[in-house]
Amino acid sequence: MRDTIRFLLGDEVRSISSVSPTRTVLEWLRGEARARGTKEGCAEGDCGACTVVLGEASDEGMVWRAVNACILFLPALDGRQLLTVEHLRGADGALHPVQQAMVAHHGSQCGFCTPGFVMSLFALYHAGTAPNRRAANEALAGNLCRCTGYRPILDAAREACAGVPADRFAASALEIAARLRGLADPEPLEIVAEGVRFVAPRTVAQLADAVLAHPDATILAGGTDVGLWVTKQHRALPTVIAVERVADFARVEERGGVLRIGAGATYEDALAAIERHWPDFARMTRRIGSRQIRNRGTIGGNVANASPIGDTPPALLALDATLVLRRGAAQRRLPAAEFFLGYRKTALAAGEFLEAIEVPLPAAGETFAIYKVSKRFEQDISAVCGAFRLRLHDGNVADIRIGFGGMAAIPKRATATEAALRGRPWTRENVTAAMAVLSDEFAPLTDMRASAAYRARVARNLLLRFWLETTSSAATLVRLPEWESAA
Ligand SMILES: Cc1cc2nc3c(=O)[nH]c(=O)nc-3n(C[C@H](O)[C@H](O)[C@H](O)COP(=O)(O)OP(=O)(O)OC[C@H]3O[C@@H](n4cnc5c(N)ncnc54)[C@H](O)[C@@H]3O)c2cc1C
Ligand code: FES
Ligand code: FES
Predict the structure, then answer these.
(1) Which has the closest alpha carbon to 99: 91, 135, 90?
(2) How far does the centroid of ligand 2 lie from the alpha carbon of residue 142, in Å?
(3) Of 161, 183, 205, which one is at a domain's C-terminal end?
(4) What is the pLDDT of residues 373-385, one digit of tens each?
(5) Ligand 2 closest atom vs CA 68
(6) Does residue 414 fall inside a structural domain?
(7) Are 14 and 6 in contact (CB under 8 A)?
(8) Does the beta carbon of 42 sit less than 6 angstroms from any atom of ligand 2?
(9) Do the domain assignments include residue 330?
(10) How many domains are there within the chain?
(11) Domain extent at residue 179
(12) Which of 77, 102, 107, 398 has minimal CB crowding within 10 Å?
């Protein structure tokens, strides 16, 4: 066991011990480290003012990802490199290419947001591909500007991030990676400080033992939900068990006709595999939170959190996913539809955790679509999210699965609507009749996101939209909103 967090702050090795393991990186930076370039706007992962970059050793060198420091607990730094806006300038004072482009395009509009924008640009610069407008939007969607606008910043992004990175970080990537490997330790991390016990096991067996020994512990994955329990709800978390260092827990692989997504896989980890089989699911995934959130948030956390408006459960319901649950050495498999029992109540027993999600690969001729309806396009929670999977045979519905979020206290399948459609011709008439069934099947709530009447109407219309999309010719189908085009 080790009780010290070791990481690189820029080039410098730092150790942290005897500090609460639920203290955020932002608090530590602005407090102990006196690095105040990183700002606090919302303290809930929404505005991007606190964006920093986490570097990790990879086979090719380094991978640098933008994350929100305001909801990142300190142990996430262990074995990684933390870069803030203070680290970008060269020893001779020269600005980094992304900073230079911000100056040249008048993108530095206020001192509060600019450091966050610059760090998101730095991560985009190191992605190593010249971004089109959509990719630049996507990388910056987690940095909110309320004063001026995004055009100068997007112009800076497209000028600075033009391809292969050529800064001093790229030049020393192998050396940084070697230094990080030198810091790596196969031992679990266990910190007890300020009333919090934090354990980061390294193997699934250690994780299973820890969860069994502490059934009341908070399991922590990316912390994009749990972080807010601390920063916004000021909840005490006496015992925290982190899954992110568990070997193979983030693995995403295809085997035996299923896509197996380890419960520790982030959205960005899983995106390429999802894209290969369900491009529409991938498109919706890119609208979950922001790049910073998707770099940390996991699909496992989204499922286990059991929010009625989580975005992946409707897809997993429609895709007939199976959840692999583990308690000690015992594993059980549960259909996703049987996991959600009541408002934020799941089928997880005491001492049990989610190990993986298995999604059957699409059968030939199957159509899948998912629609997220929210007030903002990116960085917003759904009012309604509807997922549809259809298999036709000779124009008749051989099978259909419909999953909804935002329509009940749990993510839920529309089984009565499915039954009304199954075996019948896939016609507008039958779909219209099924829309009436759908109205009776759910009694959604009115809340700040939408009224019950709006949700019910949207859900009905999403079914109609799915029918239109599956029956219209490509020439009449307008699918991509203008802001999603690759121009
Ligand atoms: C700014 C912002 C925007 C967001 N936007 C969206 C959005 O658009 N759509 C959306 O659906 N969500 C959104 N979220 C919510 C959040 O990002 C997701 O729910 C995310 O997938 C949670 O994953 P995580 O790894 O961060 O989970 P954590 O916060 O670490 O954990 C979430 C819950 O799951 C439990 N848990 C985690 N892993 C396991 C496991 N292996 N076994 C058992 N229990 C486990 C935790 O104990 C906790 O109860 C947003 C959050 C923020 C802060
Ligand atoms: S302070 Fe707003 S995202 Fe962190
Ligand atoms: S850049 Fe800060 S509000 Fe616009």
Answers:
(1) 90
(2) 9
(3) 183
(4) 999 998 899 999 9
(5) 4
(6) yes
(7) yes
(8) yes
(9) no
(10) 2
(11) 5-183
(12) 398
